[in-house]
Amino acid sequence: MRSRPTNGPTQPNSTRRALITYLPLGVVAGIFGSILTGAFRFLRPVVAAESDNWIDVLPLTELSGASPITASITTENTAGWSVTTEQHRVYVLPGTNNQVLSAVCPHEGCEVSWESQVNKFSCPCHESFFAADGSKISGPARRGLDPLPTRVQDGKLQVQYRSFENNSRERITRT
Predict the structure, then answer these.
(1) Distances 93 to 58, 59, 122, 141 between C-alpha atoms, Å
(2) For residue 55, what are the domain limits?
(3) What total of structural domains would you count in the chain?
(4) In a domain, 68, yes or no
(5) 87: Cβ–Cβ under 8 A, 6 or more apart, which residues?
(6) The pTM of the whole model exceeds 0.70
(7) How many angstroms separate the Cα of 71 from the Cα of each of 52, 100, 102, 157?
(8) Residues 70 and 37 grouped into a single domain
């Protein structure tokens, strides 16, 4: 019988062994990295420059008369990477240098309405009443309607929409 020549025991390829070892580690690291990146983007605080949030309300040519004018504005709300749009109603007071009032009752946050026959704002939820200038007349609200910052730009009245804490005497802006 003839014996076969042997070259010794075969050595496993070290490159293949390293690939088999490190490939699952790389996949696991990629998964955890993706999860951590998403969590960081979702949880980080969003800082918005309020001076850049000017929203067109109405052209100046539409602002006349003594009664409040109802307008609807659209704002963007950013939470993490989610951006939603919200509609808000405001009242423009042409007789008071185009002051803009929030339509949100400062008591519990219901939306007030203008009653032209009695010349006042009323809240349907808890019967708070406000004068034509937004000052409190009666009811459980602890302050008048909240005025919003305004400016005139390119022939249009613009406003910076703010949300205020409910049921307090002071106007505390929500962040």
Answers:
(1) 12, 14, 16, 21
(2) 50-160
(3) 2
(4) yes
(5) 72, 73, 74
(6) no
(7) 20, 10, 10, 11
(8) no
